[in-house]
Write a structure and sequence with these properties.
Length: 105
């Protein structure tokens, strides 16, 4: 779970984006689509670690995948904080639900 300081940083990123792009429905949609773009970069890096493109060979290393995963987390947190005023609570409730489901298995 993100710490209070990390959520403060996320809110700062939201404020920065809002000041440059606004927070229209279109802008929110762009922030949501950005999550998919970042997830695609995770896949691209992972495929590159394993040399799945025979023409290119190995193009990435595991730290590249880690970096891209962090981009997904930050981008999703920014999108969540752009949609709701209490992203910490929303995430905590969701994590509790997931944890309870996993414990029930």
């Amino acid at each position: 779970m993100l710490s209070t300081d990390q959520w403060s940083t996320i809110r700062g990123l939201v404020d920065w984006l809002d000041s440059r792009n606004g927070r229209s429905d279109h802008e929110i949609a762009m922030r949501l689509m950005k999550i998919t773009e970042e997830a695609g970069e995770v896949v691209q890096a992972y495929l590159g670690v394993h040399g799945q493109n025979p023409r290119k060979g190995i193009t990435h290393i595991v730290p590249d995948v880690q970096d891209e995963l962090c981009d997904v987390i930050v981008t999703a947190a920014v999108a969540l904080a752009s949609l709701v005023g209490n992203p910490e609570t929303v995430l905590a409730v969701k994590l509790d639900k997931i944890s309870a489901r996993a414990a029930a298995l």
